Amino acid sequence: MNPAVHILAERAIREHWDFLPTAGSRIGLHEYDGRLPDFSAGRIRRRMEGLHQTLAQLSALPVDPESNGSSDRDARMDRLNRSLLELFLRRELFNLEEMRTLETNPQRQVGYIGVGSYVQRDYAPLPDRLRSATSALRQVPDFLAALDTLTEPELGEPVRDMAVRAYRGMASFYETGLSDAAEQCAAIAPDVAAEFNAAREAASAAVIQFADRIQARRVRPEFAIGSQLYHRMLSVGEAVGTPLSDVLSIGQANLEQNLRRLDEAAARVLSQLGAPGKSVREAVAMVSANHPTAESLIPETRDMLEDIRQALIDHDIIGLPSEERCQVTETPSYMRYAFAAMDSPGSLEQVATEAYYYVTPVEPDWTPRQQEEWLSNFNYHTLKVISIHEVYPGHYVHNLHNRHGHTQHGRELSLINRVATSYAFTEGWAHYTEEMMLETEYGRDNPALWLTQLLEALVRNCRYLCSLGMHTQGMTLDEATRFFQAHAYMEEHPASQEAIRGTFDPGYLNYTLGKLMLLKLRQDWRRQEGAGYTLRRFHDDALSWGAPPVPLLRAAMLDADDGAIL
Questions:
Q1: Count of CB atoms situated within 10 Å of the CB of 296
Q2: 339 touches 360 (CB < 8 A)
Q3: Rounded to whole angstroms, how far apart are CA atoms 215 and 161?
Q4: For a FRET experiment, which of 8, 263, 369, 523 has its CA 20 to 30 Å from that of 162?
C-alpha cells in the first residue's frame, strides 16, 4: 500500500476502535476488552469532526503514486485499499450524520452491551475474562443513560417493539446465560465471581429499566427511511450506485426465476417419490420428514461437514488454506432463537482461534409434536444447505481465507482489508455458495437439495423486495408479511418476524444483492480468463481480497470493468 495511505488507514482504524472499542475486542485485540462506547453528545460530535478531517486528509493524498516496480496485483490492491478506506470513513459518518441510527434505531445498539464473547472464547484464564466482562457490565447503566438522551421521543412502532424485545432479551441473558461461567469462576476465584455477579445483576436492572423507557416512547406507524437514504445506504455501504428502480426490477426478476425453478424442482422430487401432481408444499413435507433424530443431530451434522469438505477437495471447488475444523456443538441457551449459526474467531485473534458451528437441539420439555416440527427443519437436505452457507464453503471458509489466505496467495491482507468488510459480500458469498454447490458434482441431479436451497433463496428474495418495498415503495408491515407467506411458503408467525426485521435492518436485501453481484462478477471474470478459468481459481481469487464491496472487487479482479454490477 502507498505508505501515506497505509499510515492514514492504520490511524483511522485505531480511532474507530477508540470510539467503538467493542469492534476492536471482537476482531481479536483484547486491549479493547472491558470497554463500552461513549455515546455522549460531545464525544459523537468530536467523532464526526474527526471523520471529516480524515476524509479531507485522504483526499489530499496523491491518487496514483508511483508504483516503484510493484506488481499489477499490488497496484490493484493499493487502489482497492484506498477506496476501502474512503468508504469505511464515509459509512461511519453516514450512520452518525444521515441515517442517525443512534437516535432512531435503539435496537441496533444492543450488541454493544453483549458480553458473551468473554465467556465463549478461551483466550485467557476465566477470571481474567470475567474481570473484563465485569468492567463492561459496570459501564452499562451510563451507556444506556447516554443512549436514552439520544433516542428520539417518537419511534417507528415495529422498530420500538423490536428494541424492547432485544433489550429484555439481553437482560435475561445477563441473568441466566452467564450463570455457568460465574459458577465455574466461583470455584477458582470467588472474589472475581462475586464482583461479576453483582455487576451483571446491576446491569440487568439497568437494561430492564431502559427497555421500559423505550416502551414508553410515543410511536408512529411510519418507519421507512425513504428513497434518498436508501440509495445513500447502498452507495456508501456497498458502492452500489444503481438506480433503485433498476435494483427493484432485478430483484423481482430473480424472484420470478426462483419460483419457476421451485416448481420444476418440486415436480422432479414428486416424480422420484412416486407422487406426481401433488403441490410444492406437499413436496416440502415429504422431504422434511427425512431428518436426524434428536440424539443424532449433532454427530450427523459433524459427519455431514466432513462429507461436504471432502467434496470441495474432490471436485476442486475452492482452496482450503488450513486443516482446522470448526467444532459442532449445541447452540448456547441464550442464542436458541436461531436454527444454526457460525461463530468464527476475529480475523486478528491470536489465541482463541477455535470456531463453533452451533446447531440448536430440541428442548427436553417439548412435546413429541414440537420436537418433530423442529427436527423437520433440520431434514438432511436443508441441513446440507445451511451447513454449506455457514461452514463449507460459506462463512467458515471465508474466515479461513482471511486468516490464512496469505499462505496461498503470497500476501497477507492489510488491516483495512480485515476491518472494512461489506455486508453484501459477506452474506452474499455465503448465499452464493448454496447455489454454486448445486452446479457442481456434489449437488447436481439432486432435486431435493435443489428444492430446499430454492426455499432458502426465496426467503432472501422476499427480504430484498420487502426491504425496498417497505422503505421506498410504501409497503406496509402487514403487506410484507403476506408477501413472505405467498412467495417463500412461510407460515404467518415466521413471515411476520422476517418482515419486522426489515423495518430496522433495511440492509437485509444484501443477501440476494451480494449473491447476484458475485454471479455477475464470476460470469465476467470467466469471459476474461477464457481457457484459464476454473471455478476454484475464481473462488480463491475472490476471497484473496478480504470482503470488500463487490463493485470494488470487480475493479480489482477485472482488467476492463464496464461497471455493470448486476
A1: 12
A2: yes
A3: 7
A4: 369
User: 409, 334 in Cβ contact below 8 A?
Assistant: no
Displacement of CA 226 from its chain's centroid (Å)? 23
| CB of 37 closer than 8 Å to CB of 143 | yes
Grid coordinates representing 468?
425496498
Strands (E), 383-450: none
Using DSSP's 3-state secondary structure scheme, residue 232 falls into helix
Q: Residue 329: enclosing H or E segment and its boundaries?
A: strand 327-330
Helices H / strands E in the chain, number of each: 26, 5
Burial of 220 (0-12, 13-18, 19+ CB in 10 A): exposed
Tell me which residue of 143, 138, 144, 147 sits closest to 201, measured CA to CA.
Answer: 138
356-359 vs 327-330, strand pairing mode: parallel
Alpha carbon 129 to its chain centroid, in Å, reads 25
- List, for residues 538-558, the tens digit of each pLDDT value: 999 999 999 999 999 999 999
Cα(74)–Cα(185) distance, integer angstroms: 49
Predicted confidence at residue 433, as pLDDT, reads 98
Write down the pTM of the prediction: 0.94
Q: Does 69 score more than 50 pLDDT?
A: no
Give the contacts of 147 (CB within 8 A, at least 6 positions apart). Answer: 39, 102, 106, 109, 210
- Angle (CA) 114 119 121, round 5°: 105
CA distance 416 to 59: 17
Residue with cell 476442486: 316
- Model pLDDT for residues 159-215, shown as the tens digit of each residue: 999 999 999 999 999 999 899 999 999 999 999 999 999 999 999 999 999 999 999
pLDDT of amino acid 221? 86
374: cell is 423442529
Query: For residue 205, how far is the Cα from the chain centroid?
Result: 29
* DSSP assignments along 191-227, one per residue: HHHHHHHHHHHHHHHHHHHHHHHHHTSEEES----HH
State how beta strands 356-359 and 340-343 pair: antiparallel
Task: Give 123-133 pLDDT, tens digit per residue.
Answer: 999 999 999 99
Cα 488 to its chain centre, rounded Å, is 21
Task: Find the helix or strand (DSSP H, E) in which 243 lies.
Answer: none
DSSP SS3 for 240? coil
